[in-house]
From TrEMBL:
It comes from Catharanthus roseus. This is Uncharacterized protein.
Length: 466
């Protein structure tokens, strides 16, 4: 009897069902017959989901999926982010090393950034020259509308950086050529340190990324890292270091024309958390008063008056200031053809834009000494010149996009009809007349067709004079 009771006391903690042998002290062991569910509280037992979906354990072995009991408040879960209420940093503060990054609240450990995906600081790495950076302006405006109060910085080449005097949404524009395959190691590491010290929440890149460029974006320590990747085997390994990838259709992203960034823009404007899909804004540029006054003095010295001249852009030269697109290399005409087109302009003065001073003599020899010639190398000055003009005649350069952005009538010359549809979609709505070559070469363009289209500038002459 003593042995039996001793055995029951030793084995009772391990039993989950009534023992199969009869026990004389069964009244003392009555808890062994209680179902195991009753040991759990009613709240916990009713919310257990045995079939809950578990995320990939290789990515996070401690993540068991969403918590069914968690409740998000509307402050951090739904809607757009609020602008940062913190005042700007004081550069004269002697205790600057104690400051926290913008948007980081110590009390809540950046809860809004984690749950809702707020973006307080964004960096955009733009590949290409003036044309490619100019077409990224709608994406910048989309980021500004989607994330109120966001600070946007740009990393671009020395030529691409010049575009951002036309964009008021950009805080800083840094010169670092992302297309350089063999950068200086010292400059490379130094620039990574600059990016890390700015605490970006999101970094975007339009350069086709392989493992090398993806590592550069990964070392920025940004939370969201989105980039285009190669459409071939060169993209191997890049997806492991990026949070979002866009596979380019071709090796040259600029061949996509005006909508070359459509995949990235579609991802940026995606709906979520009671925020509807954001439409893509049109291309717009802002011109400062100081820039307008500087350019006005230039074209007045050339003998032109505001609203009474036509901008001619696309003279053949070997200068990078020609502002061509990488997706259309056949987009410049010799001065002899431009001289024939200029003779058809009646009532308005043609103003020839040259990208280098060495071309001035060539233009004067063909057109004459009284020709109005303006030397312009930056997109800001070109935009100011177009803004005061009556219209634009240009090949596929940045001038045609700036004319559309300022809602000026224009005539665009293309090497083929396919390029025209890609780079200037909805041309009629943009007051743009398209003339394309029938042979696929811009040099063979029909000059008589261009002369007929030039007559459109003579119609609003009275309005232009006002």
């Amino acid at each position: 009897m003593a042995a039996t009771s001793l055995l029951s006391k030793c084995t009772s903690p391990f039993l989950t069902s009534p023992p199969s042998i009869p026990l004389t002290n069964s009244n003392n062991l009555s808890f062994l017959t209680i179902p195991s569910d009753q040991f759990l509280s009613p709240k916990k037992s009713s919310k257990i989901r045995p079939n809950a979906k578990k995320k990939n354990p290789w990515l996070d072995p401690f993540n068991d999926g969403e918590d069914p009991d968690i409740e998000y408040g509307s402050l951090f879960a739904d809607g757009k982010q609020e602008e940062d209420p913190r005042p700007p940093d004081n550069p004269d503060n002697p205790y600057g090393f104690l400051k926290f990054p913008m948007g980081y609240a110590v009390e809540i450990a950046s809860l809004g950034l984690k749950i809702r995906g707020d973006v307080r600081r964004c960096c955009c790495v733009i590949s290409g020259g003036v044309y490619e950076n100019l077409l990224f302006f709608p994406a910048i405006q989309l980021i500004k509308d989607r994330y109120p109060g966001v600070q946007i910085d740009i990393v671009a080449s020395d030529r691409g950086k010049q575009c951002y005097e036309l964009n008021k949404n950009v805080r800083w524009a840094n010169v670092f050529d992302p297309d350089d395959d063999f950068p200086d190691p010292g400059e490379y590491l130094d620039f990574i340190g600059v990016i890390k010290s700015r605490y970006y929440d999101m970094i975007l890149s339009t350069k086709l990324a392989g493992l090398g460029h993806a590592s550069f974006l990964f070392m920025s320590t940004a939370r969201d890292r989105a980039s285009y990747v190669y459409p071939n085997v060169n993209a191997a390994g890049a997806g492991l270091l990026l949070s979002e990838t866009f596979t380019a259709e071709t090796m040259n992203l600029s061949e996509g024309g005006f909508h070359m960034y459509n995949q990235m823009v579609d991802w940026l404007g995606r709906p979520g958390r009671n925020v509807p899909r954001h439409p893509v804004p049109p291309l717009k540029v802002s011109i400062s008063r100081k820039l307008k006054e500087f350019v006005e003095e230039k074209y007045r010295n050339a003998g032109a008056q505001r609203g009474k001249y036509i901008v001619i852009h696309g003279i053949k030269a070997d200068s990078k200031a020609s502002m061509q697109s990488r997706g259309d290399t056949d987009s410049l005409l010799p001065i002899e053809i431009w001289a024939q087109i200029a003779k058809a302009i009646n009532g308005l003065k043609p103003v020839f834009v040259i990208p280098h001073e060495k071309i001035r003599e060539d233009v004067e020899d063909v057109v004459g000494d009284k020709a109005s010639i303006v030397f312009i190398t930056t997109p800001g000055q070109l935009a100011a010149l177009i803004n005061d003009s009556a219209g634009v005649i240009s090949t596929n350069t940045a001038a045609i996009q700036l004319a559309n952005a300022r809602e000026k009538p224009s005539i665009a010359l293309f090497c083929c009809e396919e390029k025209a549809k890609v780079f200037v979609p909805n041309a009629e709505e943009k007051k743009c007349s398209i003339i394309s070559s029938k042979t696929g070469k811009l040099i063979d363009i029909d000059v008589d067709a261009v002369k007929s289209a030039v007559q459109v500038f003579s119609m609003p002459l009275a309005l232009a004079a006002v």
